[in-house]
TrEMBL record:
Belongs to the cytochrome P450 family. InterPro entries: CYP11_CYP27_families, Cyt_P450, Cyt_P450_E_grp-I, Cyt_P450_sf. It comes from the Eukaryota. Heme binds at C472. Keywords: Heme, Iron, Metal-binding, Monooxygenase, Oxidoreductase. This is Cytochrome P450. GO terms for molecular function: heme binding; iron ion binding; monooxygenase activity; oxidoreductase activity, acting on paired donors, with incorporation or reduction of molecular oxygen. Its cofactor is heme. Gene3D superfamilies: Cytochrome P450. The keyword Nuclease does not apply.
């Protein structure tokens, strides 16, 4: 199917006549994206295939516990099943309390939607966070609600204020040393945790979570939070932060994917969510205030070597921007990265040949394992970077992204009305043979410029960090943190796995599910 974009409504009859005459299958898109219903060839929205809703419960029952056809943890499989059952476009309608979900598995269409999204893309996410920010703590967030769960002008204004420092390589690179220090502490802790077989404990994923928390503390609060301390008392601040991160973040899957009872009355899980979010607000306020005090004592010149938070505080008279930014980074920058790291380490442990290649690259770049990391060294770790990309293609931590359509749009020949939530299932499209050559094979080399073979990949098939103006704000930090961890760990240890294979599931993010008892064998060279 090809498309014809028409600049003016008056041209419609002329173009339609031309298309009919030439028996063309092209779909017509009006430049202003308002689509008249009567255009021939364009099928109505309700003709899109999809699971049939049942009366009263709509399609929500499919996600209900016990009677539901799909479990929350099956969401990744659900997206695959929908593709197999209905093809490249499918509609999940009749979801109580939320708009229809439209699954699009066509990389050309995904590209088109992303490219047309305009200056304020709307990502339908985290309704519970929206309620928290816009109702429960309206007093705090007011006109500066941040980026996560925020849309339209308020989102654009906030993103414009913070985007430059967060994505600027100069700022990100300042964090090589601090993240290397956190990671060194984490690896020492791993040494202490291993059993007599050198296996990590069964809850090793929680330890990775603490490393991610400690990293985000350094980035967003200019602070070492102390989460890697092995002897935390129950009431200590780091332990309370660890617990809040678990409840506030991990329960979002239950709040958002299961029936949203919390919208109608405050359920226990909702009350806990609010309590933990309040705790995060308190922590962010405390550490940003401390950063401000330190900043006030500094003499700032245009060349001052400032941290991310200091730069925000120096440019913005309102401290609220820094509080809210820190909160947003914490909310989305812990689980994403810790789950991605679980997945990457598990893949390394179960792919010894690939791990050997990574090790050889690292040994060549860092003959002494204690070589301090630099921008140059990190840039030269091409296999490390390619391996991470390949894991994110085949096991994308965030299984899909989405946009709420802000205009009526034609997608695969259907007229899709404004307001529908379009889902881009990157986990599925990233593995479709028509978009990715040898899609079922795990080949990091496909991402390497000087690879012997010529692999093709559609640029919109695998987008683990999303795309466009709303793309992941923390992606440079995410890449940096993952790369530093791999460089330090794989240079010095061989990672193995000697237990039952782990299945991938969605518990908020897509990651191996079960006991991550990785074995860490110290390398001798
Ligand atoms: C491997 C780890 C990560 C993955 C796979 C990931 C993925 C994503 C995706 C898919 C989005 C939506 C983008 C879009 O709508 O186009 C997103 C948004 C976002 N991410 Fe990440 N992310 C990761 C790590 C991080 C980290 C470490 C941080 C913070 C330091 C972070 C901060 C954010 C923020 C603030 C947004 C919201 C941006 C906005 O709506 O304007 N992410 N991320």
């Amino acid at each position: 199917m090809s498309y014809v974009v028409i600049r003016s409504r008056q041209d419609v009859p002329r173009i339609m006549y031309f298309l009919r005459r030439h028996r063309s299958q092209a779909a017509v898109i009006l430049d202003d994206l308002s689509v008249p219903q009567e255009l021939p060839h364009i099928k109505p929205y309700n003709a899109i295939p999809g699971p049939k809703p049942i009366p009263i419960l709509g399609n929500t029952w499919r996600l209900l516990p016990i009677i539901g056809q799909y479990d929350v943890s099956d969401v990744a499989r659900l997206s695959d099943i929908i593709y197999r059952d209905y093809g490249k476009i499918a509609r999940l309608s009749g979801l109580i309390g939320r708009p229809d979900l439209l699954f699009v598995y066509d990389a050309d269409e995904i590209e088109k939607i992303y490219r047309q999204e305009g200056p304020t893309p709307f990502r339908p996410s985290m309704p519970c966070l929206v309620k928290y920010k816009s109702e429960i703590r309206k007093d705090f967030f007011g006109k500066l609600p941040g980026v996560v769960g925020v849309h339209g002008e308020p989102w654009r204004e906030f993103r414009t204020k913070v985007q430059k420092p967060i994505l600027q390589l100069k700022t990100v690179r300042k964090y090589i040393r601090p993240i290397e220090t956190v990671t060194g502490d984490f690896i020492r802790r791993m040494e202490e945790m291993m059993d007599e077989n050198k296996d990590m404990p069964s809850d090793f994923d929680n330890e990775i979570h603490k490393w991610a928390l400690e990293c985000i503390g350094v980035v967003s609060l200019d602070a070492r939070l102390g989460c890697l301390d092995p002897n935390l008392s129950l009431n200590s601040e780091p332990q309370r932060i660890i617990n809040a991160a678990k409840y506030a973040l991990r329960n979002i899957a239950i709040l958002e994917l299961k029936f949203p009872f919390w919208r109608y009355f405050p359920t226990t899980i909702w009350k806990n969510y609010v309590k933990n979010m309040d705790y995060f607000v308190k922590i962010c306020t405390k550490y940003v205030d401390e950063a401000m005090e330190r900043l006030q004592k500094k003499k700032i010149t245009p060349d001052s070597d400032l941290s991310l938070i200091e730069r925000i505080l120096a440019n913005e008279p309102n401290k609220k921007t820094a509080y809210v930014l820190a909160l947003d980074l914490i909310l989305v920058g812990i689980d994403t990265i810790s789950m991605a790291v679980c997945s990457i380490l598990y893949q390394l442990a179960t792919r010894p040949e690939q791990q050997r290649k990574m090790y050889e690259e690292l040994r060549q770049l860092m003959p002494d394992p204690n070589t301090p990391l630099t921008t140059k060294l990190l840039d030269e770790m091409v296999f490390v970077k390619a391996f991470v990309k390949e894991v994110l293609r085949m096991y994308s931590t965030v299984i899909g992204n989405g946009r709420t359509l802000q205009h009526d749009t034609i997608i695969r020949g259907y007229h899709v009305p404004k307001g529908v939530q379009v889902v881009f299932p990157t986990l599925v499209t990233g593995q479709m043979e028509e978009y990715v050559s040898k899609s079922n094979e795990f080949l990091p080399e496909r991402w390497m410029k000087n690879s012997d073979e010529n692999y093709s990949i559609h640029p919109f098939a695998s987008l683990p960090y999303g795309h466009g103006a709303r793309m992941c704000l923390g992606r440079r930090f995410a890449d940096l943190e993952i790369q530093i961890l791999l460089a330090k760990l794989i240079r010095s240890y061989n990672i193995e796995y000697h237990h039952q294979p782990l299945e991938y599931k969605v518990t908020f993010m897509y990651a191996p599910h079960g006991e991550m008892k990785l074995r860490m064998m110290k390398r001798l060279d």
